[in-house]
Design a protein that fits this description.
39 helices; elongated; Serine/threonine-protein phosphatase 4 regulatory subunit 3; PH-like_dom_sf; PP4R3-like; P4R3-like_central_dom
Length: 817
């Protein structure tokens, strides 16, 4: 079989019953050895990759729709469609399919869908066709019963559809409808309602094309007005002919396009308003109706997009100053609906659609429209702008950066958006929330492109902070000139909360741009004025902004905070809140707890030195006492530099010895008989014996003398600890500079283990102290056992806690290792 190449689009039906575009390519039919049969092949026109390889199964039902569509199912939930550019190509592939299945190419469906049992199939095969009763008034009840009985069976449904189609039954039924309506025959009208509703559920394109033709569609809608469950008929036709008006804001010269628009509107109305809500069992029966509307919209967008004169006139009138307000409102509404239709397009088509609008000058036109006073026009323009931003934010960024070279800051498109956000008259700020989301999308580095020369992120952020940031922050700066917000009403607070949310996003995602802006403009001090607001949500927004800054652990920010004493308004808000357990209380405590846990040394010292007196009485959490403890530990390190150097020496000997030396020392340890050791003698490796004991002991002895004076104070803060055989009862302070310390709970086995990788400083210090002070239980500086041995040791310690006193000192030392 010879290959024939035709241009097609491949569609698949997703779970939401919407068609997804899988790509554009050329279709051919050929014998595929792997599939053992003739197959449809579609290769992408861009790179020649295989988009579709589908064997023409002799039992698969293929449908031909609208002269350019072929639809079929592969498996229960996998529907496919080929949309041809030309009718000739569709006919040629359809002939190939019919040739393989042995069917006449004049049919629109090649197979009957058979799902029944063998008994039902045998019964249906005994009657080759379905005979319809004569289309007469006195037989309408019989016909309604026949339709209702055929719907549950797919095979009978298919036979009924073929009979209705071949006998031209729909037009005869509509003639009866006009007679019944003239005679006010309610019983006949109710039967016709059931019949027409059943024909919709037959889900057949050929029937839809007859029902939705210009001469039939209004009568079909009329039949669906007489629902037997309603006392009075509905007035759908009256609405469509008198209330709904078709406005040509720009004259449409193509009659086919105009007819397609009318048809799509009416069919959409039937689906949304006329047909009753389908049950779970009926929902899949209307899939062809969904497809009919979908492909109609695709055709309308394509035909409008190809009509350059139409789009040129549209944008010319939009930007013309002489256009009156009513006309401009209609033009903007049309453009908004046009963009809404484009959402049914697949990514490739949508990309071409927005590229066409961009070439026509949609962004300059929107800039003109957004500068107008009409609220409805501006609202429609905002919706159009949102379509553009959501689909292609880079296109919008490129436009605003180019126009900044020609226009003043006041009339830039992005500044117009910010001004509309600030001046939103809606008490709930619905429009402002939408615009804030668009600005956030434009400022998000995640969707910015990078080129070989320069990144879009650098260019756009430099532009934004130079030309637009002052407009965004103006309400914030104007409202925070004093110690309290100058305006504290609900709407102003909502607006400031939106601005703070956007600034917080910038802190998280931008680097030096926002840092320079905050420090140079003293933004954080202004933001913290809002902690005095009567609206808790605004005060929490201000705290969240500061918390994000502290979370960066950037010393530039930290020095800025300390230099300007910016914890002062936070402490004031905390004290003003009192002991109330609310969000404000929790947010402030969490901020201080973060500083303590992460050991931000500069901020810890600043807080204790400046605000300790105000916070020392807070005892329902241990956060502030823990900060004071951190501060004292830092001071001890600063006063005893030898302590740090000694810890460094121990750390080096613990982790950096030569591997062979390590093995030798371990061997020596395990080969040493404990009976050979004198009581109280520490087993110390030769490498450590070389160190002068005086150099090591002098700073430790001085340190312990000072700590004995503070034991009483520390006991209140730290609480009692559960001690093991390796811990001295009098040693309570942790020297870890990088690990989290729980001041109220006893130390875990991990914190007591000198081999723990997270806390080498603390372990070596505890070890050194034991070497000096525990004359009856000295520990050698050796490598410690692996984790498995440590776990066994902890179990032995727990089981034999009461027996430790009986263990000889040297034995104790070995157990500790």
């Amino acid at each position: 079989m010879t290959d024939t190449r035709r241009r097609v689009k491949v569609y698949t039906l997703n779970e939401d019953r919407q068609w997804d575009d899988r790509g554009t390519g050329h279709v051919s039919s050929a014998y595929v050895e792997r599939l053992k049969g003739t197959s449809l092949l579609v290769r992408a026109e861009s790179d020649g990759s295989l988009l579709l390889e589908s064997k023409i199964n002799p039992n698969t039902a293929y449908q031909k729709q609208q002269d350019t569509l072929i639809v079929w199912s592969e498996g229960e939930n996998y529907d496919l469609a080929l949309s041809f550019q030309e009718k000739a190509g569709c006919d040629e592939i359809w002939e190939k399919i019919c040739q393989v299945q042995g069917k006449d190419p004049s049919v629109d469906i090649t197979q009957d869908v058979v799902d029944e049992s063998e008994e039902e199939r045998f019964d249906d095969m005994s009657s080759p066709g379905l005979e319809l009763p004569p289309c007469e008034l006195n037989r309408l009840e019989d016909l309604a019963e026949l339709v209702a009985s055929s719907l549950p069976s797919p095979l009978r449904r298919e036979k009924l559809a073929l009979a209705v189609e071949n006998e031209g039954y729909i037009r005869k039924l509509l003639e009866l409808f006009r007679i019944c309506e003239d005679l006010d025959n309610r019983e006949g009208l109710h039967h016709l309602y059931e019949i027409i509703k059943g024909i919709f559920l037959l889900n057949r394109t050929a029937l839809f094309e007859v029902m939705f033709s210009d001469e039939c569609i209004m009568d079909v809608i009329g039949c669906l007005e007489f629902d037997p469950s309603l006392l009075q008929p509905r007035r759908h036709r009256e609405f469509l002919t008198k209330t709904a008006r078709f406005k040509e804001v720009i004259p449409i010269s193509d009659p086919e396009l105009r007819q397609k628009i009318h048809q799509t509107y009416r069919v959409q109305y039937i689906q949304d308003m006329v047909l009753p809500t389908p049950s779970v069992f009926e929902e899949n029966m209307l899939s062809t109706l969904h497809s009919f509307i979908f492909f109609n919209k695709v055709e309308i967008v394509g035909m409008l997009q190809d009509d350059e004169k139409f789009l040129t006139d549209l944008f010319a009138q939009l930007t013309d100053e002489s256009t009156d307000d009513d006309k401009r409102h209609e033009l903007v509404s049309f453009l908004k609906e046009f963009c809404a239709f484009s959402q049914t397009l697949q990514p490739q088509n949508r990309d071409a659609f927005f590229k066409t609008l961009s070439n026509m000058g949609i962004l300059p036109a929107l800039e003109v429209i957004l500068g107008m006073d009409d609220v409805q026009v501006r609202g429609a323009a905002t919706d159009i702008f949102s379509y553009l931003v959501e689909y292609n934010p880079s296109m919008v960024r490129e436009f605003v950066m180019q126009e900044s070279q020609q226009n003043d800051d006041d009339i830039l498109l992005i500044n117009l958006i910010i001004e509309h956000m600030i001046c939103d008259s809606d008490p709930e700020l619905g429009g402002a929330v939408q615009l804030m989301g668009l600005l956030r999308t434009l400022l998000d580095p995640e969707n910015m492109l990078a080129t070989a020369n320069k990144t879009e992120k650098t260019e756009f952020l430099s532009f934004f902070y130079k030309h637009c940031m002052h407009v965004l922050s103006a309400p914030l700066l104007a409202n925070t000139t004093e110690e309290k917000p100058s305006k504290d009403d609900f709407q102003t607070s909502q607006l400031l909360a939106l601005i703070l949310e956007l600034l917080t996003f910038c802190v998280e995602h931008h680097t030096y741009h926002i840092k320079n802006y905050i420090i140079n403009k003293d933004i954080l001090r202004r933001v913290l004025v809002l902690t005095a607001s009567q609206h808790a949500f605004l005060a929490l927004c201000a705290l969240r902004f500061m918390r994000r800054i502290i979370g960066l652990k950037d010393e530039f920010y930290n020095r800025y905070i300390m230099r300007n004493f910016l914890f002062e308004p936070v402490v004031k808000a905390f004290l003003k809140n009192g002991s109330r357990y609310n969000l404000m209380n929790s947010a402030i405590i969490e901020m201080f707890e973060y500083v303590r846990v992460e050991d931000v040394k500069s901020l810890t010292a600043h807080i204790v030195e400046n605000y300790w007196k105000a916070l020392e009485d807070v005892d329902y959490v241990q956060t502030f006492k823990g900060l004071k403890l951190r501060y004292e530990q830092q001071r001890e390190r600063q006063d005893n530099p030898k302590l740090d150097s000694m810890r460094s020496i121990l750390r080096n000997h613990r982790f950096r010895r030569d591997a062979r030396t390590l093995e030798d020392e371990e061997e020596m340890w395990f080969n040493t008989d404990e009976d050979d050791l004198e009581d109280g003698e520490a087993v110390v490796p030769p490498s450590d014996k070389m160190k002068s004991e005086e150099d090591l002991m002098e700073p430790i002895s001085k340190f312990m003398e000072r700590k004995k004076l503070k034991d009483t104070e520390d006991k209140d803060v730290l609480g009692k600890s559960t001690l093991t055989g390796r811990q001295s009862p009098s040693f309570k302070l942790s020297f870890s500079g990088s690990t989290k310390t729980n001041i109220s709970s006893p130390p875990s086995s991990a914190s007591l283990n000198p081999g723990s990788p997270g806390s080498p400083d603390k372990c070596n210090l505890c070890l050194c102290y034991q070497t000096v002070c525990e004359m009856q239980g000295l520990v050698g500086l050796v490598d410690y056992p692996v984790d498995d041995e440590e776990e066994e040791e902890e179990e032995e310690e727990e089981d034999g806690e009461n027996k430790e006193d009986a263990v000889p000192p040297t034995k104790k030392s070995k157990l500790s290792s």
